[in-house]
Amino acid sequence: MTVPTRPVRRADRERRFNLRATALFFVLLAIILCVLAFVVRTAADIVKSRPLWAGSIVVVAVAAAHLCRSRWRRFSAARYARRAAEALEEAAERASESLDARATYDGAQPEPIPAGPPERELLLDVPQPAPAAEVLDGEEATVVLDAPDDFTQLDPDGFEEAIAELCARDDCREVEVVGGACDLGADVLAVTPDGLRVVIQCKRYGDDNKVGSQDLQRFGGTCFTVHEADIAALVTTSDFTAPALEYAQQCGIVCVNGDDLRAWLDGTGPTPWEAAGVEV
User: Fold this and answer.
1) Which residues, including other chains, have CB under 8 Å from residue 212's CB and lie 6 or more apart?
2) Structural domains in the chain, sorted by start
3) For residues 240 and 221, what is the distance between their CA atoms, to the nearest angstrom?
4) Beta carbons within 10 angstroms of residue 86's beta carbon
5) Which tens digit of pLDDT belongs to each residue from 96-151?
6) What is the pLDDT of residues 59-107, one digit of tens each?
7) Residue 59 to residue 50: CA distance in whole angstroms
8) Pick from 192, 160, 195: which is nearest to 177 by CA?
9) 230 near 197, Cβ under 8 Å?
10) Which of 59, 74, 86, 243 is deepest in the core (most CB within 10 A)?
């Protein structure tokens, strides 16, 4: 992987002293000062001799300055709007070019694999998605992933769907995935066989990223009051920090870490609603 580097600016060269330019600068400065002094003196004479004219000139100058300022603001706003429109148009063109290039790449046909004997067929090393469900003896049985390692390879939406499938496998009713931008902490809703409302939040984290107390506090503020949960559980593929476990114990939230998720998946451990009566 290449790392882009910022271009290094060259050191400014030392400016040489120019006598001619310096002399011209001071001459212009003297002229400007003389003109300003003449203008100030003339204005003072006008104010003394004809104050009415001076007041009229001041009013006209203020009005002209205000008008010029308003026009300058409009000009500046129009200029900024034009620049923003040009930037948006350029970004749209870049996005269109990127999409066209991606479509061209996706549309390229792969090279065919030469056929061989059945016992020596080549197998592509591409993971295939697990089927969502299969029919056994006329009844639909939910099929879930074989190991928690597969959960870490899913995106957050896929992880929520997998947890919902686990709930449906264990005879929960009204299983629903509600995770999103405005879910208020709830990712999966379900009703246990005993009629208890379960609210589950899913955190697909890596092994080195533990669920902290802030995550538990945000979930604890809505799971019971907003979602009216009888059982609230937070399921993660990693683990919890000690403050998070302490807060969960105080609020009655079931914490399911990666090992607990493996046991739930294999059927060797309790479900979150079965573990609700067990101390976290």
Assistant:
1) 241, 243, 244
2) 20-98 (no CATH), 133-277 (3.40.1350.10)
3) 18
4) 10
5) 676 666 655 555 554 555 554 444 343 334 444 444 444 444 444 444 444 445 68
6) 888 888 877 776 665 556 566 667 776 776 777 677 767 666 665 555 5
7) 15
8) 160
9) yes
10) 243
Q: Are 172 and 196 in contact (CB under 8 A)?
A: no
Query: 233 by DSSP, 3-state: which?
Result: strand
* Contact criterion met (CB below 8 Å) for 240 and 255: yes
Q: Rounded to an integer, what distance in angstroms lies between the CA atom of residue 158 and that of residue 132? A: 11
Q: State the residue for tokens 């007041």.
A: 55
Q: Quick one: which of 178, 248, 61 has its CA closest to 257?
A: 248
Token pair of 151 as six digits:
């959960």
Of the candidates 178, 265, 268, 186, the one whose C-alpha atom is nearest the C-alpha of residue 229 is: 186
> Taking a C-beta distance cutoff of 8 angstroms, is the pair 46, 54 a contact?
yes
